């Protein structure tokens, strides 16, 4: 198993491990959120139960309040009837006087049809002779209860006014205090969950609590409260309550999850995002560092190779001159000269790696012809080279000719190896507005799609004696030095492979 096969295995193992860790984290976070939600719900239910019990107590108090109010009304009606009977000059006054004297706690006033106060009972005895005091008490009685008319006959009417007794007033005050306390308890519930106490019939908000303080004290507080109220109604979390006296019947407490729990629900996703960003940044940093190290290795190796080739190349030039002096066959000398020039060009290529090469506008048709001609003369006879220019005679493209020719030679050499020295290599040149395409197609063994990117990695090779640097070098020359693209366009098993080079015009 080579390094790239192991690399793929490690990638999958790391990916699976990361997925397991992330999944476990999400499950555990979800478990915590679920437990907190259940705990918060239990707290709300306990608080709601306490509210419900207090509501029952208030309802009992309210019923007592209503009962006393009815009894006082009946007592006043009986008192009015006694006054009416007394006005008829009945013989038996004892029972009527007992009824009138029986009212010992309800303040009353008897007024004629002209508005004159005839008699009073259960008012302040000290202030009883003060007309202003009597008028004040009459106004209070008019405000609290409707008067009771007493028909005396012959078109004469008296009116009986009364107000709440001290006992009844204390009970009513206690009831109202309890009601206000109940509303305050709703508004300041200890569960930290936002709650609204409202009339379910009119949708009137009576009290609310645990809302955002800043928004509550802002100009748009009313709109904010209504918005939260609507959300609570849609959530369906409510508790019906009844306070008594008819005023609390049909009222509802709406509540929703606390902001802390709502934020906690998104915590796993936030953590996942943070970890993801951290991993991406770490990967980019390590990749950049790795590429920088590879570049240093490439540059160092290329410079050293150029340096090592320089010494024997100088010696070969000297030997060429010596052979000419000895009268060696001219044809042999020409062939040796071609190879020496080739070595000189290779040395120049290696020396350019690591420095920014100079790009010159070159006729791509001629550059391809030159590179292919060199490979044709050094390839097996069973390999056919075909150049298709699609009718182009001139296609100027800025390239560095020695480095570009190196790319074409590498691709053609790999194609010859993939065909086992027998087949055809087609080089097609096409013009596409702002770019030029060069497609190199062979009739070799092909490759699986999973290897389309791997073949350009340094060290990847299918040859027993290969270094796996040719295609990696091609990629660096095209993409780093010419700012172009090189990739596997298509490949089929036993049908061949097409590499595409894209250069900017």
Q: pLDDT below 50 for ≥5 consecutive residues: which ranges? A: 93-97
Strand order of the largest sheet: 10-12-13-15-14
Biggest sheet character? 5 strands, mixed
Please count the beta strands (DSSP E, at least 2 residues each).
15
Shape: rod-shaped
Helix and strand composition category: alpha+beta
Rg, please? 52 Å
State the share of residues found in helices, binned by percent: 55-70%
- SSE series: HHEEHEEHEEHHEEHHEHEEHEEHEE
Strand percent estimate: 15-25%
Span from first to last CA?
A: 42 Å
Summarize the structure.
Helix content is 56%, strand content 18%. The chain is built from eleven helices and 15 strands.
Structure overview:
By secondary structure, this protein is α+β, with helices and mostly antiparallel strands. It has three domains: 1-106 and 164-257, no CATH class; 266-355; 357-504, 2-Layer Sandwich (Heat Shock Protein 90), CATH 3.30.565. Helices cover 56% and strands 18% of the residues. It contains eleven helices and 15 strands. The chain has a five-stranded mixed beta sheet with strand order 10-12-13-15-14. The chain has a four-stranded antiparallel beta sheet with strand order 2-1-4-3. Strand 5 and strand 6 (205-209) form a beta hairpin. Helix 1 (3-87) packs antiparallel against helix 2. The longest helix is centred in the first third of the chain and has 85 residues, at 3-87. It is rod-shaped, with a radius of gyration of 52 Å.
């Amino acid at each position: 198993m080579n390094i790239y096969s192991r690399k793929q295995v490690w990638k999958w193992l790391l990916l699976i491990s990361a997925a397991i860790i992330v999944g476990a984290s999400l499950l555990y976070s979800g478990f915590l959120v679920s437990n907190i939600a259940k705990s918060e719900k239990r707290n709300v239910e306990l608080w709601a139960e306490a509210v419900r019990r207090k509501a029952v107590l208030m309802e009992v108090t309210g019923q007592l309040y209503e009962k006393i109010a009815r009894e006082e009304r009946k007592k006043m009606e009986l008192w009015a009837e006694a006054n009416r009977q007394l006005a008829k000059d009945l013989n038996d006054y004892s029972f009527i006087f007992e009824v009138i004297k029986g009212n010992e706690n309800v303040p009353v006033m008897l007024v004629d049809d002209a508005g004159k106060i005839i008699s009073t009972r259960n008012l302040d005895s000290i202030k009883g002779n003060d007309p202003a005091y009597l008028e004040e008490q009459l106004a209070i009685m008019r405000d609290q209860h409707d008067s009771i008319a007493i028909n005396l006959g012959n078109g004469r009417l008296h009116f009986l006014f009364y107000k709440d007794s001290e006992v009844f007033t204390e009970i009513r005050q206690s009831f109202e205090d309890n009601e206000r306390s109940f509303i305050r308890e709703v508004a300041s519930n200890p569960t930290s969950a936002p709650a609204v106490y409202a009339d379910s019939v009119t949708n009137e908000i009576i009290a609310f609590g645990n809302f955002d303080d800043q928004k509550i004290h802002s100009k748009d507080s009313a709109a904010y409260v209504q918005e939260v109220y609507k959300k609570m109604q849609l959530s369906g979390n409510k508790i019906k309550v009844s306070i008594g006296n008819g005023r609390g019947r049909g009222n509802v407490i709406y509540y929703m999850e606390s902001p802390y729990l709502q934020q906690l629900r998104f915590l796993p996703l936030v953590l996942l995002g943070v970890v993801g960003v951290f991993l991406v940044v770490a990967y980019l940093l390590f990749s950049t560092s790795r590429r920088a190290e590879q570049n240093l290795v490439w540059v160092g190796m290329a410079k050293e190779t150029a340096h090592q080739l320089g010494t024997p190349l100088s010696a070969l030039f000297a030997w060429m001159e010596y052979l000419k002096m000895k009268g060696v066959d001219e044809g042999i000398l020409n062939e040796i000269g071609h190879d020496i020039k080739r070595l000189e060009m290779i040395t120049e290529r290696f020396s350019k790696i690591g420095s920014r090469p100079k790009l010159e506008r070159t006729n791509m048709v001629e550059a391809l012809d030159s590179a292919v001609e060199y490979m044709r003369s050094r390839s097996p006879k069973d390999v056919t080279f075909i150049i298709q220019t699609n009718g182009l005679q001139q296609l100027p493209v800025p390239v560095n000719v020695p480095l570009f020719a190196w790319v074409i030679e590498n691709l053609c050499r790999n194609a010859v190896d993939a065909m086992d020295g027998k087949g055809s290599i087609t080089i097609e040149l096409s013009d596409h507005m702002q770019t030029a395409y060069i497609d190199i197609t062979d009739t070799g063994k092909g490759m699986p799609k999973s290897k389309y990117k791997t073949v350009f990695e340094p060290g990847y090779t299918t040859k027993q004696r290969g270094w796996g640097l040719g295609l990696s070098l091609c990629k660096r020359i095209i993409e780093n030095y010419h700012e172009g693209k090189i990739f596997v366009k298509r490949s089929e098993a036993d049908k061949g492979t097409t590499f595409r080079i894209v250069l900017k015009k």
